[in-house]
Design goal:
Layout lengths: L1 E6 L5 E10 L4 E12 L3 E2 L2 E2 L10 H33 L9 H8 L1 H5 L6 H12 L5 H21 L10 H14 L4 H20 L30 H9 L5 H16 L3 H4 L7 E3 L5 E6 L6 E5 L2 H9 L12 H18 L5 E8 L2 E8 L8 H10 L5 H8 L4 H5 L6 H15 L2
Antiparallel strand pairs: 1-2, 2-3, 4-5, 6-7, 7-8, 9-10
């Protein structure tokens, strides 16, 4: 990474621009510093001092001396700008887009600090507005939902909460209100705090806010360990049952095929409802794969297509099943509605206990299994069915989970099933 100062424009007196370049990341951008200088006075990224002649009168020499003092101050300003950019660049966030706007935000951080709101809800609005062009629509929607819950808390408790006051006591008070009074599940509370910490990290790093020492660790510790919840997955046996069941209704047949595809490819609904024949590639092992960029993570993943998925593709003449409409949201809603009918039609009717959302709250409910099938069941089924059969690291390269800890939250295999699998693996080793 290099930082240089250059002049732009044809005028005799031109503004000095700072240029940040990093060829390793294909970054080359610049922004104005607000300092102006005559072209012939600027060389090698520095404002040159004026020189007086021995023949000059005393008052002329004094003028040159005073002018050079100002030039020295301007050169010091350039050094400060360089230091700020080096520090800002070295401590940048992964999501930062390095452009002229970013340079300005780093250089003006101290000026903007006091103008940026400190009230929690106002700052949350500021954060969403600042990040709306960098985040996906889904992420913006998630942040708005989280923001609204905090706004409800502020209104209910009639408090004015500053982001500088977000300490362990705030977390404890909010937890009592959120869980005991409003009836939300602990895991929903944890997600609420997790998103808040994300916003606070932005406030500290980008907005240069001084926060409470507790703030960065609000989402950590034993008391914030998520509660294990029983979400369902579909076993290989159940998937076979679903595949072999005859379905005459066209929209249910399409939904059944989409369900099988998501259960054998392990992707989020935002990805598996966007699969296209154009995404299919044949690699050097002569097997077919999906080559996609995940919507949520922006990660490239290669997904092997097993015989079930290949049979479905053959059924649709090399294409994936048609979707219900041109609307992304409507497709997801329709799939989640029809997939339960598919489960019922295919006999996935055993009585089980599982968590589901009731009035936007997570509740443990006992009911027939098909009623719990949703778009996320495929991702959990893939993770659980292959866990123990294939090395976890290889499964994660396909699911795109950011860590093994997060991946294991999706695994719902029972300890006895894993023990049986382990025994089978031992026999295969023939030690």
């Amino acid at each position: 990474m290099t930082i240089n100062f250059v002049l732009k424009g044809k005028k005799e007196a031109s503004q000095i621009y700072v240029r940040l370049k990093d060829t390793a990341y294909n970054i080359d951008t610049m922004a104005g510093t607000g300092l102006k200088v005559f072209k012939d006075q600027f060389k090698k990224g520095k404002i040159q001092n004026l020189k007086s002649s021995p023949k000059d009168l005393a008052h002329k020499k004094a003028e040159v001396t005073e002018a050079n003092k100002e030039i020295d101050k301007q050169n010091e300003q350039l050094k400060v700008i360089e230091k700020k950019l080096i520090s800002g660049y070295n401590n940048r966030n992964e999501y930062d887009i390095i452009n002229a706007k970013w340079i300005k935000s780093v250089l003006n951080a101290d000026k903007n600090k006091d103008s940026i709101p400190n009230e929690l809800i106002k700052y949350y609005d500021y954060f969403i507005n600042e990040r709306k062009n960098d985040l996906s629509k889904g992420s913006v929607k998630k942040h708005l939902n989280v923001r609204n819950r905090y706004a409800e808390y502020v209104e209910d408790t009639k408090q004015t909460i500053l982001i500088q006051q977000l300490d362990n006591q705030f977390r404890a008070d909010f937890k009592k209100w959120f869980i005991n009074l409003k009836g939300y599940h602990f895991n929903t509370f944890k997600k609420q705090i997790k998103e808040l910490v994300t916003v606070c990290n932005y406030a500290k790093k980008v907005s240069k806010k001084e926060l409470h020492s507790d703030t960065s660790t609000l989402n950590t510790g034993k008391e914030m360990k998520p509660i294990q919840t029983d979400y369902i997955f579909l076993s290989f046996k159940e998937l076979k049952q679903i595949e072999e069941t005859e379905i005459q209704i066209k929209e249910l047949d399409i939904t059944r095929d989409l369900l099988l595809i998501c259960c054998f490819t392990g992707q989020r609904v935002s990805d598996f409802l966007n699969y296209s024949a154009k995404d299919i590639v044949t690699l050097e092992d002569n097997n077919k794969y999906l080559d996609i960029i995940q919507v949520k993570t922006n990660k490239q993943v290669y997904i092997p297509l097993n015989d079930v998925v290949l049979r479905i593709l053959e059924k649709y003449k090399g294409n994936f099943p048609p979707l219900y409409s041109s609307s992304k949201d409507k497709n997801e809603q329709t799939f989640n509605k029809l997939v339960k009918r598919v489960g019922y039609h295919c006999g996935i009717t055993e009585k089980i206990e599982a968590y589901t959302k009731v009035n936007n709250r997570l509740e443990l409910v006992k009911d027939q299994k098909y009623k719990f099938i949703s778009s996320h069941t495929g991702r959990r089924s893939f993770s659980t069915n292959y866990y123990g059969l294939i090395p976890t690291s290889l499964i994660i390269t396909i699911t795109g989970h950011s860590s093994e800890i997060i991946f294991k939250n999706y695994v719902k295999a029972k300890p006895k099933d894993l023990a049986i699998t382990f025994t089978q693996k031992l026999k295969e080793l023939d030690l």
